[in-house]
Design a protein that fits this description.
With 473 residues, the protein is of the alpha/beta class. Helices cover 24% and strands 20% of the residues. The strands form five sheets. A five-stranded parallel sheet has the order 3-2-1-7-18, with helices on one face. Helix 1 crosses helix 13 and helix 7 runs parallel beside helix 11. The protein is globular and about 75 Å long.
Length: 473
């Protein structure tokens, strides 16, 4: 099917957003009041959903409700979480509930409310290619409008011209290589946590269950399974690669790693230093909420009241080397303890992989821009401090990214708390105006030894006692 060119009288868009997850939904909400900005957002799914397989009863998001789509950039926006409550006549119940961290299901409902009421969102639209047209100094975005049926059949194709693009295609579930053949076999009960609720009844019916992954999702799933298994007959294993079922760093100064101040500091570091830091800082964003750890311990302790111990095994520091099937119904995991160097086999009836997510590769989508794209020494796209891909100077438009900049901007890249600030930064950059005034300082911590008075125009608000060292001749 050929793609009809845009009508010659159709003006180009100012902005095309690709993907409608929380990040680009934040961008769309903050772009909404900017009358001079003509924007459209494409998403191949039929509607908004946010990790539906993990909306477990009682599970909360790990940032305060103020980290909604817009508040930290514009608390007067009509798209705040509090306004969502107001429209549902739920402000007083929320007030008396005294909840700073809301449930995941409630955050999902809030985002769906925004997506259902915000103009300019085009669901059931799959973006196929992006290219730069040097003759017109515009990007071309090829897309396919899908039928609303479950098969996602292609319906019509189109092309949109635009001056700017924002990629917000999010992340995809990660399945470790040793377990991928089993996870890809429909008849084998090896599922990723992203699909947990869809398969929960099947998993609970299994004789023995193993949860792989020692992060927040693994902890929540283990707790949910534990609560629904009979005392003394739990038959649960929970394993993970980390050296401990470690709590997430949640001290107030520790949280300053999720401020714009730290993001700017991290971006200015050398590439090898950034790579080392991302690996070392896993506990800032991959640890387990202390409340979830306490709930697991409470549940396990409760099951010892009549004597004996629950039939559970919790072992950190373990990796799955290989995996296979025994007969037709059982699964065998070959395990290695990373500290002891010892190995063993675990036979189980169902496996839930709480093994996290990875950034979706951009190479296929950006193949048409590859001749213009600058990359780092590891072949990754270079991204500047305003979240723009570094392109050849001949490209006059910009391509911004959301939640694809972990290697350049650090642990705050996937954090919901920075979504509004990043969206405002992108909109200020695209429009060339300070549409959203942003704070010049956001942390008490001074990251680095350079004089902090030079980093913002508000020098009198900064500590002045650091003097740069001058090397003697």
């Amino acid at each position: 099917m050929t793609i009809p060119p845009p009508h010659r009288d159709t003006p180009p868009r100012d902005l095309v957003g690709i993907g409608i997850g929380p990040c680009n939904l934040s961008l769309a909400a903050l772009a909404h009041p900017l009358a001079e900005l003509d924007a459209v957002f494409y998403e191949q799914r039929p509607g908004f959903d946010w990790h539906p397989g993990l909306l477990i009863d009682g599970a909360t998001i790990q940032v305060p409700f103020l980290a909604d789509l817009v508040t930290l950039a514009d608390p007067t926006s009509p798209w705040t979480f509090l306004n969502h409550l107001r429209t549902r006549e739920r402000l007083f119940p929320f007030y008396f509930a005294e909840r700073f961290h809301i449930q995941r299901a409630e955050y999902d409902a809030y985002c769906r409310w925004v997506a259902q009421n915000l103009p300019g969102l085009r669901f059931n639209h799959q973006v196929d290619a992006v290219r730069w047209n040097p003759e017109h100094d515009l990007f071309e975005v090829d897309h396919t409008r899908l039928d609303t049926g479950t098969d996602g059949t292609a319906h019509t194709r189109g092309r949109t011209r635009t001056r700017n693009i924002v990629l917000g295609i999010g992340t995809a579930p990660h399945v470790p290589a040793p377990l991928k053949p089993l996870a890809d076999t429909p008849t084998v009960p090896v599922i990723h946590a992203a699909d947990y609720l869809d398969h929960r009844d099947t998993v609970l019916a299994a004789g023995h269950i193993t949860v792989v992954g020692s992060g927040q999702s693994g902890a929540e799933i283990f707790l949910d399974l534990l609560r629904h298994r009979p005392p003394g007959r739990e038959r649960l294993h929970w394993i993970g690669r980390t050296e401990a079922f470690a709590p997430m760093e949640y001290s107030k100064l520790g949280l300053e790693h999720f401020t714009p101040d730290y993001t700017r500091y991290f971006h200015a570091l050398a590439e090898p230093v950034r790579d080392r830091l991302v690996a070392a800082q896993w506990q800032l964003h991959k640890g387990i909420d202390a409340g979830t750890l306490a709930a697991i311990h409470d549940e396990l302790y409760r099951r010892t009241l009549d004597g004996g111990w629950p039939d559970t095994v919790l072992t950190p520091g373990v990796q799955v080397r290989t995996a296979g099937r025994i007969a037709t119904s059982r699964i065998e995991l070959h395990l290695e303890h990373l500290q002891q160097g010892s190995r063993t086999r675990l036979t189980t009836d169902a496996v839930v992989l709480a093994t996290g997510y990875r950034e979706r590769p951009l190479d296929h989508l950006l193949a048409g821009l590859d001749p213009y794209l600058h990359r780092d020494s590891s072949g990754r796209p270079r991204i500047d401090d305003r979240y723009r891909l570094v392109l050849d100077p001949s490209v006059t438009g910009s391509v911004h990214v959301q939640n694809a900049e972990l290697h350049t901007h650090g642990v705050g890249a996937p954090d919901l708390g920075l979504a509004a600030w990043r969206s405002a930064t992108i909109l200020n950059s695209i429009t060339g105006k300070e549409q959203y005034p942003l704070p010049t300082r956001t942390a008490f911590t001074t990251f680095g030894l350079e004089d902090p008075a030079t980093r913002t125009p508000h020098a009198r608000q900064q500590p002045q006692h650091l003097t740069p060292l001058v090397e003697q001749a």
